[in-house]
Amino acid sequence: MSDVAVIGLGAMGTALAEAFLNKGHSVTVWNRSPAKAQVLAAKGAVVAASLEDAVRSSQLIMVCLLVYDTVHEALAAAQEALSGRTLVNLTNGTPEQARAMSDWAVGHGANYIDGGIMAVPPMIGGQHALILYSGSRQAFDTHAGQLDALGTSMYLGEDAGLAPLYDISLLAGMYGLFAGVLQALSLTGAVGIRAGEFMPLLMSWLNAMQGALPKWAERIDSDDHTSAVVSNLGMQADAYVNLIDASTAAGISTELVLPMQDLMRRGVAAGKANADLSSLVGLLQLSKQATRD
Ligand SMILES: NC(=O)c1ccc[n+]([C@@H]2O[C@H](COP(=O)([O-])OP(=O)(O)OC[C@H]3O[C@@H](n4cnc5c(N)ncnc54)[C@H](OP(=O)(O)O)[C@@H]3O)[C@@H](O)[C@H]2O)c1
């Protein structure tokens, strides 16, 4: 028996297995393409001959494959072996996929924990690697000591969908930021300003703007988007046109920034011109809006 089995040895699965080994845990590994297991075998991992052997090797089974369909497909071959074990699925997916996977695993007698990895492989094992978990509290408490080998663990609740919900929401914030940065560097780069020259200013501006976010949280939680507004939506919607026009004039695609303009205009049309930008959350929540209407 090993302390933990790691199924899936892509860039992330390999980093997970290495982190367990580095913290002194015994590890059994399995990957569809066996060659990827060799580097871990050299570091002390046991290479299972089959996925079922890997599952039977440990009470704690970590799975990190590409997508959920792959996980279903791969684990189907070993479903009988899951009974009584804890399955921790760190594959990126949606809350709905996580809940369905949880039902499936529990239906086969396993404890289920879903996870979201907020890190890239080189960060795994360090404290800055945040791993979100949700699902069986009892199983999480039992294995928390082992899971801490991967980074900083955060347990979110019994609903297996919570970890992917937090994961996807954090990624949404990240991609929004990245989209804006791409536009900014396209604009400055088009006139020959080097990215390295502009980046410090951009980073400092983005850091300053983060300061507005706690107030947004207050406004959203209290549903009060109009008191003490210093940069109202109407003003921002008018100024935003310049961002579109300047991009177009410079031959820069507006595909990343046009949707924000559409949303701002929708907000103004809905009577939110004097409200803060935070009020746009209500317009994005289409199903909630339909219930209110
Ligand atoms: N890398 C990151 O920065 C990062 C960060 C956070 C989260 N994640 C998530 O972690 C998961 C794994 O990412 P990764 O970077 O390790 O990806 P990867 O390097 O592309 O590895 C994919 C893994 O999935 C396996 N796989 C794919 N299709 C399969 C199938 N039909 N049957 C069995 N195994 C199959 C691959 O096996 P083979 O080796 O045989 O192809 C490999 O082990 C993804 O859900 C990803 O979103 C990754």
TrEMBL record:
Residues 159-284 form the NADPH-dependent reductive aminase-like C-terminal domain. Keywords: Oxidoreductase. Gene3D superfamilies: N-(1-d-carboxylethyl)-l-norvaline Dehydrogenase, domain 2, NAD(P)-binding Rossmann-like Domain. Residues 3-155 form the 6-phosphogluconate dehydrogenase NADP-binding domain. InterPro entries: 6PGD_dom2, 6PGDH_NADP-bd, HIBADH-related, HIBADH-related_NP60_sf, NAD(P)-bd_dom_sf, RedAm-like_C. Pfam families: NAD_binding_2 (PF03446), RedAm-like_C (PF21761). This is NAD(P)-binding domain-containing protein. It comes from Mesorhizobium captivum.
